[in-house]
Design a protein that fits this description.
seven-stranded mixed beta sheet; globular; about 280 residues; alpha/beta; two-stranded antiparallel ribbon; single chain
């Protein structure tokens, strides 16, 4: 076995993903064997029959654990260094809140194990390297992400959501995240002058916190059903979990809002989305 093959085998064993940047190999008390063994146990539980429950739908399509996104950091300033850890922590807080906040009314009194399990097995992979990624273009990141997916044997897009898309945090993303409400519920309930905006005390208008999602399958000369599609979209932090659920059966292009006019920026919010020009 070659060095690369050994590295690949070490990175993805038995449906358990590992990366050298993680201090230790990920583990979970529920994850004691292959995912198929977990499903054999789960299918006997009443909650497993909830076909429209987001957490259950997601669990049924998982092909490796932990689940999450590759996140590329492209902003490297003294200010971003100071705020970086808080930025990542806020992303995690919003995602975990979103998972626990989607109990459909008919399931509110059910066993909350599915949501709890999805929360506990969520873990992102952070790629940060000033020399490689400072100011990197979408195409640079797309190329690298495709190569990494191929290295792991995920290039067929079956590993949800690892192989379906990656996320980017640039300066605009960072600013929107660190200036956003600390409480995700407060952000979700606030209504600004238009979709995607909220108003801080003092009248300052700001965007709801977001990251950029890159479609690794995008071809600049390709033909797409989504008008004006350019291979990327912004995703509100509160919409990251919903995007992960949708990517089970869809592509980034299929959940991206129509980009008309083309100079506008599409924003996915867990629903139909909207467009901004900043």
């Amino acid at each position: 076995m070659s060095q690369q093959e050994r590295s690949r085998a070490d990175a993805l064993q038995g449906g358990n993903l590992h990366h050298p940047s993680w201090p230790e190999r990920w583990s979970h008390p529920e994850f004691t064997g292959p995912l198929r063994d977990l499903r054999k146990r789960w299918c006997k539980q009443p909650w497993y029959k909830h076909r429209t429950r987001r957490s259950v739908m997601f669990i049924k399509w998982l092909s490796c654990l932990p689940w999450g996104f590759v996140i590329y950091r492209t902003v490297y300033t003294a200010e971003s260094d100071r705020l970086w850890s808080a930025c990542l922590a806020k992303i995690d807080r919003y995602v975990r809140w979103s998972i626990s906040n989607v109990y459909e009314d008919e399931f509110r009194n059910s066993d909350h194990f599915p949501e709890k399990f999805v929360q506990e097995t969520y873990k992102n992979l952070i790629f940060e390297d000033r020399e490689r990624w400072e100011g990197a273009s979408s195409e640079q990141i797309r190329t690298d992400f495709k190569q990494y997916s191929e290295f792991l044997g995920m290039e067929d897009g079956s590993h949800i959501p690892w192989s379906k898309a990656c996320l980017v945090i640039d300066e605009s993303c960072l600013n929107s995240i660190v200036s956003a409400f600390e409480d995700p519920e407060e952000s979700a309930n606030w209504r600004g002058p238009q979709r995607g905006f909220v108003i801080e005390k003092g009248g300052y208008i700001m965007l709801k916190p977001f990251v950029v999602m890159i479609d690794p399958t995008f071809e600049p000369e390709g033909s797409y059903d989504t008008p004006g599609y350019q291979g990327y979209m912004r995703v509100e932090l509160a919409g990251i979990w919903e995007a992960a659920v949708e990517l089970r059966l869809a592509t980034v292009q299929e959940i991206c809002p129509n980009v008309i006019p083309t100079e506008m920026i599409p924003v996915y919010d867990g629903g139909s989305g909207y467009l901004v020009n900043v």
